[in-house]
Amino acid sequence: MSQQSLGEALVGVFNRVFQAADATILCGGAAEPYYEPGAPSVIYFREDFDRSALHEVAHWCVAGSVRRGLPDYGYWYAPDGRNAEQQSAFYSVEVKPQAIEALFCEALDLTFAVSVDNLTVDANCPEVSDFKTAVDRQIMRFRQQGLPDRARRFKEALTLLAVERSG
Question: Tell me, what DSSP letter sits at residue 142?
């Protein structure tokens, strides 16, 4: 019998931890990530991409109860080609989720790199460097002060998953 993919395992772990407790499930196979409030609420991630799953769960972990009641947490989305103001707004809402995603990746021994989600941005520009620094600082704050409750519960479950998959 073949071992299930990491994406399938992430869905199983998330649903085991949060479906009953928080009326939310994780679902892969989507063309685009999306959060749909409901009964249950559904976090959709791209295709079977592990990092997409972790990133979308991180957004759910930082969203408060009001945002969790809104489609896609009430955020706007602008595709590639954002202007400087739109890209700056993107950076401001992505620091905490990407810091949490980095800690999820760490639990699974996956490589993490910040995402600017915009192919028109030069990866070597000062704004990207500032964003990386902000994410690193937030990671340190989470290490010192602890993760939000849902993020902490998921990271603990991911740590167990990593042990199960390595053994």
Answer: H
Measured in whole angstroms, the distance separating CA 36 from the mean position of its chain's CA atoms is 15
d(C-alpha 165, C-alpha 85), whole Å: 43
The number of beta carbons lying within 10 Å of the beta carbon of residue 52 is 21
**Amino acid letter for position 48:** D
Q: What ranges do the domains of the chain cover?
A: 6-74, 84-166
Global pTM reads: 0.93
With 0-12 CB in 10 A as exposed, 13-18 as middle and 19+ as buried, what is 147? buried
pLDDT per residue as tens digits for the range 51-96? 999 999 999 999 999 999 999 999 877 666 777 788 788 888 899 9
For 23-148, where are the alpha helices, taking DSSP H only?
50-62, 65-68, 84-108, 126-145
Q: Return the percent helix, strand and coil in the chain, to nearest 5.
A: 60, 10, 30
By CB neighbour count within 10 A (0-12 exposed, 13-18 middle, 19+ buried), where does 19 fall? middle
